């Protein structure tokens, strides 16, 4: 099957390579011409623009986007809506907000162009392990594109979860759960590391990977990271947050669904992003004022 791939970052490039391994035809475009050239050397058809990409695809065309959420994706959808024809399909495999996907599906439908939102999980390991695909689409379009999904995913690793918008909704919740799992591991390993028992936390991670009820792929990755850098000295404690955590929390508030694990994980990430916390300074000042407790100037912070 033939498909156009727009956006050749870590995910888009690896997905293109997996499709090429599956003997699909891939036309590839990215604003970085060098990555297009790399994929062209591996068998893809390089394109210099969206217009050029569309011209290299046979009708009915299928274009898969792996782009950052927001205006970049919005502009790409607008451009494709003018370049594609009735019967073509646009697939958004990035982490767009599900409400945007619902709107985009409606707008493209008016032009006879189908839209599929595909929540994609697998990260840099997906090339070899496969990608978990959470797909929002009409059933007919899902069946049409199923050879692509089947190649990208591991066995039983893809599903149509609902109509357009559902794929990104499920991926949003998926990432929110991921926030909570990661936070639980982080807190537990910090407590063990602070123990007077001089625990080898790397060893604990390895033991837990085998038969424990808390084993998971995330734990596998943590064990690997601790094996390479036992004290994680090569890392800072800055943790970025992507849109999905915030969007899920907003959705939970709107629906009155309690999500304390996500909210705690979310606010911990915000704390990590501060060079210094004004709230922490307020707490220190109050303790000093009412109780004469010790405070430290910035240069004496541990």
Draw up the topology in text.
Layout: E1 2-6, H1 10-21, E2 25-29, H2 33-41, E3 45-46, H3 50-55, E4 62-65, H4 71-83, E5 89-92, H5 98-109, E6 114-121, H6 126-129, E7 132-136, H7 139-152, E8 158-162, H8 166-194, H9 201-208, H10 217-228, H11 243-255, H12 260-272, H13 278-291
Parallel strand pairs: 1-2, 1-4, 2-3, 4-5, 5-6, 7-8
Antiparallel strand pairs: 6-7
Helix pairs in contact: 5-8, 8-11, 8-12, 9-10
Number of strands: 8
Order of the strands making up the biggest sheet: 3-2-1-4-5-6-7-8
Q: Name the average pLDDT.
A: 93
User: End-to-end distance, in Å?
Assistant: 58 Å
Instruction: Please report the number of helical segments.
Output: 13
Textual characterization of the structure:
The chain is an alpha/beta fold and 302 residues long. It is built from 13 helices and eight strands. The chain has an eight-stranded mixed sheet, with helices on both faces. Helix 1 links the parallel strand 1 (2-6) and strand 2. Helix 5 packs antiparallel against helix 8 (166-194). The longest helix is centred in the middle third of the chain and has 29 residues, at 166-194. It is globular, with a radius of gyration of 23 Å.
């Amino acid at each position: 099957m033939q498909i156009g791939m727009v956006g050749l970052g870590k995910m888009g490039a690896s997905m293109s390579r997996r499709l090429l391994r599956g003997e699909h035809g891939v036309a590839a475009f990215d604003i970085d011409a060098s990555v297009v050239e790399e994929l062209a050397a591996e068998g893809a058809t390089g394109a210099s623009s969206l217009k050029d990409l569309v011209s290299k695809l046979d009708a009915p065309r299928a274009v898969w986007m792996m782009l950052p959420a927001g205006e970049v994706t919005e502009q790409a959808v607008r451009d494709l809506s003018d370049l594609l024809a009735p019967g073509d399909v646009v697939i958004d495999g990035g982490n767009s907000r599900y409400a945007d996907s619902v709107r985009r599906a409606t707008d493209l439908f008016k032009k006879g162009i189908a839209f599929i939102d595909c929540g994609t999980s697998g990260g840099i390991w997906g090339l070899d392990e496969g990608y978990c695909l959470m797909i929002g689409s009409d059933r007919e379009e899902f069946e049409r594109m199923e050879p692509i999904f089947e190649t990208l995913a591991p066995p039983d690793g893809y599903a149509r979860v609902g109509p357009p918008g559902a794929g990104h909704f499920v991926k949003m919740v998926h990432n929110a759960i991921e926030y909570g799992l990661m936070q639980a591991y982080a807190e537990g390993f910090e407590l063990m590391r602070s123990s007077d028992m001089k625990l080898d936390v790397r060893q604990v991670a390895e033991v837990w990977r085998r038969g424990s009820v808390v084993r998971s792929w995330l734990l596998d990755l943590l064990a690997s990271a601790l094996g390479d850098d036992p004290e994680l000295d090569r890392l800072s404690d800055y943790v970025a947050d992507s849109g999905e955590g915030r969007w899920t929390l907003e959705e939970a508030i709107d629906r009155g669904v309690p999500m304390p694990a996500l909210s705690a994980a979310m606010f911990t990430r915000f704390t990590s992003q501060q060079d210094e916390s004004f709230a922490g300074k307020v707490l220190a000042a109050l303790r000093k004022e009412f109780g004469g407790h010790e405070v430290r100037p910035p240069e004496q912070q541990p």
